[in-house]
Amino acid sequence: MSASPLAPSWLRHPADANALAAAVWPPSAARVDAGELAIAGVGAGELRQRFGTPLYVLDEDEVRRRARGIRTAFEREFARVGSGVTVYYAGKAFLSTAVARWVAEEGCSIDVASGGELAVALTAGVPAGRLGLHGNNKSDRELDRAAEVGLGTVVIDSESEIARVAAAAERHGRVQRVRLRINSGVHAHTHEYLATAREDQKFGVPLAEAARVVAAIRARSALEFVGLHSHIGSQIFESDGFGEAARRLLAVHAELLAGGDIPELNLGGGFGIAYTEGDEALPFETLAARFADIVAGECAALGIPVPRLAIEPGRAIVGPAGVSLYEVGTIKPVEVTVEDAEAEASHTSVAEQIEASERVADRGTATRLYVSVDGGMSDNIRPALYGADYSARLANRISDADPALVRVVGKHCESGDVVVHAEYLPGDVTSGDLLAVPATGAYCWSLSNNYNYLARPPVVAVRDGVARVIVRGETEEDLLRRDVLEDTA
After folding, report:
1. Is 299 a catalytic residue?
2. Number of neighbouring beta carbons within 10 Å of residue 3
3. Which ranges of the chain have pLDDT less than 50?
4. Where along the chain do its domains lie?
């Protein structure tokens, strides 16, 4: 059977709709008895029987391997240029006490962005000195807690925070290490980056104001300025944007050295991962070598020492280690006009879609198979929020049926409730099948919600053939417990 005319250009028609693409799935994912999918030696059928669906599955060894891998690669490359590195795991991607322990045991520090994330990291036993606090609107309570526990670094996001961070440090009799987040004017996404004089966003201070704001920080005896910080975007596959940001920040860094030592430079995170076979993520070793060459080369040109680098990967550590399991329900073939599908794929507004459909010659119709599952935008809202693409495979069996183009959708009362926009699955996919969606370790559980009063699924860690719950799933009783039943008598 040939490729569907409804398929996006990046989606290849598979020779085998059961195959697991190595770039997308955890290395431990394999087909076992009767073609069942297993992750770290635990079969999908066992996972459904014990924990139900939807279900987040996290390969512990893969999280550890990736945390260790990115840390050692960057340490090696920055040692080569005479410096060091601190890797902060970005907890916003996915944070639980178990994951916090895993990454800390693999030598990473942790970046938190709220009092709640701070509480999780501390409860996990991560030393406060290995934590950094982000946020554009930190509360006084969060800043006080950070100072109380001896938090390693606070990222100052606006000039008005200076006095508040200093006051919290003074109350607890300590000097707080701080970085200043810079709005570098560099925004990177996927394979492109855009450098502008000023970005219109809520984070950071403009580059042109850095010297004045750093002077205000240095004037506070309760604060120790340790370096500049930037974050240029997410899901980035190239190093060009990081290079431009580094050049801009290091130029200011060099000027600021006249006022005192600056031990660090933080270039943030945003390293891309493969969600589909069309994505090509840079290996950690390549990324680290390019970062080291960029920073060292720019420092040499400026005649300054190479500062210690800090980076904040989150998705790159936990994303590829996660797989979501769903049970298939309704199967619905839908006949689609080809030019309407092309307009949908290429344009955003309804007006643009209508205009495009009028320009395209009639190419007939084709069938898109809608595969409904028992989760959706409550457990993975990224496709609805960002148009994010994912992959999928049958998890309970293999099939020699011809591949069919499918759209995996959820059970919510929203037409935009899509889990996988486009994928080829065996055409005999049926109600009761198990479906697995890879690369869901980052931002799926973190952004999960109770829309339509669906309970959030549990998170199960798998390792060496053993599965255990690391985040308990919600029940309807949990949801009702928050509801206040008023006495109407």
Report:
1. no
2. 13
3. 190-191, 193-197, 346-361
4. 30-59+320-480, 61-319
